[in-house]
Amino acid sequence: MLQFIAVAACAAVLTACGGGAKTPTVVVVPQPDYKLTTLETGTGLTAATGDTVTVQAVGWLYDATKADLKGAKMDSTIDTGVPVTGTVGVGVLPTISTPASGWDQALLGMQPGGKRLAVLPAALAFGANSRAAVTINNITYAAVPANSPLVYEFTMVNVTKAVAIPSVPPPTVTTITEVVVGTGATATVGKAVTVRYTGWLYDGTRVNRKGTQFDSNVGGTALAVTVGTGVVAGFSTGLTGMQVGGKRTVIIPPDQGYGSTATSAIPANSTLVFDIELLTVN
To answer: Where are the beta strands (DSSP E) in 130-174?
Structure first.
């Protein structure tokens, strides 16, 4: 009976008897400062934001007890024989399995043949993510615990500069490009027609000038309209003279489009690009 009472007392006051849920212990991993050391200076083109680079990288877990700070190896493109190629400065260059934003900071400004050593705190590496040990080409790379700082040695192999495309200013009048010349009835002012169309915002840096798409009825119900009414002036201009079966690309300046009126998809004073296919004329 006394034993039963003692057990009941423990059940009533768990903390007094050492039971109950315990708050898990949060492991705080000491983080080094970000540090970048140039080991060798390269020559040639300098890596800048938007450039395509090819780089060799070897990574280790950070170990403050080592003179070189390199603990267990967790990554190596040299071992695998596959260097990393990607766009630098936009946060997309990968490590062996997870993006590490610290790569961008370390690689910017490097030249081919150059070598750098980067100490990356976890915030510039895998962050709170972890990675299991991986085996590639019979080589096993160490697991990466959450919040692990890393050490990387980078060798720049190649830099290809980003291509800057000059922007072509939009036309000031509605321009028409015949894509396919039709053979049927001709659309004239006052005629009822049906059309398929797709519309884009004008982008002078693109070869076809087609930027963000804002509307299309391709695959849906054809647009029925009377030429000269019901649509913006530039669209009617683009329709006029088309024959059934014809296709045109029409660039419409703002004063022939929506002018200073903005919509949810079209900013004010936008130049528009339309692909138009004439289906019927009545």
So the answer is: 134-136, 139-141, 150-160
